[in-house]
Design a protein that fits this description.
single chain; Immunoglobulin-like; ten-stranded mixed β-sheet; 2 helices; globular; Copper chaperone PCu(A)C
C-alpha cells in the first residue's frame, strides 16, 4: 500500500525537476524570449478567452509588454488579477503595460497576469494554433503561435 504513495510523489518530484530545468534555460540570450504559449479553447459563441505565455527578458535593460494583437478578436488586452483584502479576485487592464525586468522571467499564467481576448469572432478549437502578436515598449513586435488547449487540459498544466 505504501508503494502507491511513493510512486506518485516520485513522479511529481521528476516533473518539478523537469520544469526547473526549463526555467533555467528560458533566459538565455540578450533579447526577449517567449515559451509555453497557450490559449484556452473557446466554442462558437463564446465571447472571451485568455492566453498565457512565459517571457524572459535576457537583455540588460527592462522592457514592457504594452499591447497584444489578435485578428480573431475585437480586442486583446494585457490584464492583471488582483486579490482584494476580503479575498475577492478581480481583473483589470495593466495600465501602461506589464513590466519585464532585465534578466528575469515574467509568467503570464492563470490567476495572475494574462492576455484577455475579448469579442472573439471565431472559435478557438483544441489542438489548433492561434497567432498573437506581442508589442513591447523597446523590443521589436513578436508574433507567436499559441497552442489552443481545452479547459480540462489547461487545468492539468500546473498553472500554465
Amino acid at each position: 500500500m505504501h508503494i502507491f504513495r511513493i510512486v506518485p510523489f516520485s513522479a511529481l518530484a521528476l516533473l518539478a525537476a523537469c520544469s526547473r530545468q526549463e526555467t533555467t534555460t528560458a533566459c538565455a540570450g540578450d533579447e526577449i524570449i517567449a515559451s509555453n504559449a497557450w490559449v484556452r479553447a473557446a466554442s462558437e459563441g463564446s465571447p472571451m478567452s485568455a492566453a498565457y505565455v512565459e517571457l524572459c527578458n535576457g537583455g540588460d535593460a527592462a522592457d514592457r509588454l504594452i499591447a497584444v494583437r489578435f485578428d480573431d478578436a475585437d480586442a486583446a488586452e494585457v490584464h492583471l488579477t488582483r486579490m482584494s483584502e476580503d479575498g475577492v479576485a478581480s481583473m483589470a487592464p495593466a495600465e501602461g503595460g506589464l513590466d519585464l525586468p532585465a534578466h528575469e522571467k515574467t509568467e503570464l499564467a492563470p490567476g495572475g497576469a494574462h492576455i484577455m481576448l475579448i469579442g472573439l469572432t471565431s472559435p478557438l478549437e483544441e489542438g489548433e494554433e492561434a497567432a498573437l502578436t506581442l508589442e513591447f515598449e523597446n523590443a521589436e513586435p513578436m508574433t507567436l503561435m499559441f497552442e489552443v488547449r481545452s479547459r480540462v487540459d489547461a487545468a492539468g498544466h500546473s498553472g500554465h
